[in-house]
Amino acid sequence: MITNMNKIRSEVNQEYTWDLTSLYPNEEAFQSAVNDLKSNIQKITSFQNKLNTSTIIVECLNLLATITQQATSLFTYAQLKVSEDSSNAQSLLRQGSLAPLSSSLGSNTAFIDIELSLLNETILNEVMVLAPHLKGYIEEVLRQKPHQCSLDVEKALSLLSSPLNAFYGIYNRAKLADLSFKPFELNNESYALTFNSFENQYEFNTNHDIRRSAFHSFHNQLKAYQHTMAAVYTAHVQKEKALATLRGYESVFDYLLFNQKVSRVIYDQHIDTIYEHLKAPMRHYARLIKQEYNLETLTYADLKLPLDPEFEPKITIEDSLSILKEGLALLGKDYIEMVERAFKERWIDFENNMGKSTGAFCSSPYGAHPFVLINWTERMREALVLAHELGHAGHFLSCRFTSIHF
Fold first, then answer.
1. Which residues are CB-contacts of 157 (< 8 A; sequence separation ≥ 6)?
2. 78: which of 34, 92, 172, 198 lies 20 to 30 Å off by Cα?
3. Do 18 and 135 reside in the same domain of the chain?
4. Which parts of the chain sit beneath pLDDT 50?
5. Are 195 and 296 in a shared domain?
C-alpha cells in the first residue's frame, strides 16, 4: 500500500520500485559501458570519406547501430535514475557526465548521413539488397536530405546539443528538485503539498474546501516562478524557430512534425476536430460535475472530480495486476505474460517520493525490457494509466523482434 507522498527515495518500499540492474548491475558496469562507447565512437571515425562501396557502408552502419544501442542504454539509465529522484546529486552528476559524450557522438558521426545522401541511388540500392535491415535507415537519410546542413554546421549543432536541449531539463530541475511547496492550512489543520500530491490526490478530493485550498496554494506558489519559467519556455521556442529556419522548413510546425512523419494537414485536422466537436461534450461534462456536487460555481479546481463520487474503489498494486489480466485477456497469452513479467521482474516504479517525476511514462531502451514510471495513489485511474503505459511496452517488445535500433 502506498499512501505517504512526502517520503524521500531511501524511505520507499523497494518492492514497489523498478529494478534498473537489468541495464547495469552497478556503477562499475555503467562506467565500463561508457568506455566501450567511447572506443566505438573513435572506431567509426575511420570510415569518414570512405563510404563509397556497399560493403563499407554496411560495415559502418552496423557499427553505428551498435553505438546507437550502447548510447541509448546509457542515456536511458541516467535519465531513469534522475526521474526517480531529481534531487539525488549522484544521479544528476551521472547524467551531466554524459553530455560531452552525447556531443562527441553526434559530431563524430555527422559525416555518415551527409556522405550517404551524396551517393548515387545504385550504391544505396546495393546496400539495401545486401543488408535489408538497413533499408529504413537509408530511406530516412534520403527523406532528411532537403533539410541537411553542411558537415561543419551539423558538427557544430551536435557539439551544441547539450545547451540547445537544456531547457526541458532546467524546467524539471526547478519543478522537481528546487521548488518546495509550503503546507496549506485549513480549519487549524496543516496539509503537506507537493507536485505529486496535488496532481494525484488533492485534485480528486471530494472535500471542496480541501481541494480548492490545495488548488489555490499550489498555483499561488507556482506563480512566484512564472517569469523564470516563461523565460525558459521562450528560449526553447526561439531555439526551435532558429533550427527550423536553419534547416529550411516553412514553419516551426513543419519542423516539429517532420520527424514524426505527420503532415501539416493531418495536424490541422486534429486541432479543428477538437475545437469543433469536443467543446460541446466537455461543457456538458463540466455541467454534470457542477450538478452532481451541487456547486454554486464551477471552477478549474473542480474539473477533475470523479463524476460518480460513490464509485471510486481503492485499488492496490496487487489488485491492479488481476484487473489488467482480466481486462487485457483478449490480447492473447503472450501479452498477459508480458504484463505478468512487468510486475514480477519490477519493470514498474509505483512508489511516490519527493523529487520523482510527475505523471507516467514508458521508456523502452532497445535491447532491454521497457520501464514504466507511475505515481500510484490506489485509484482506478492509475490502473487505467498503467494499462496504457504497458501498451507501449507491449508495442516495443513486439517491434524489436522485427527491426534493429534504427
1. 106, 149, 164, 243
2. 198
3. yes
4. 1
5. yes
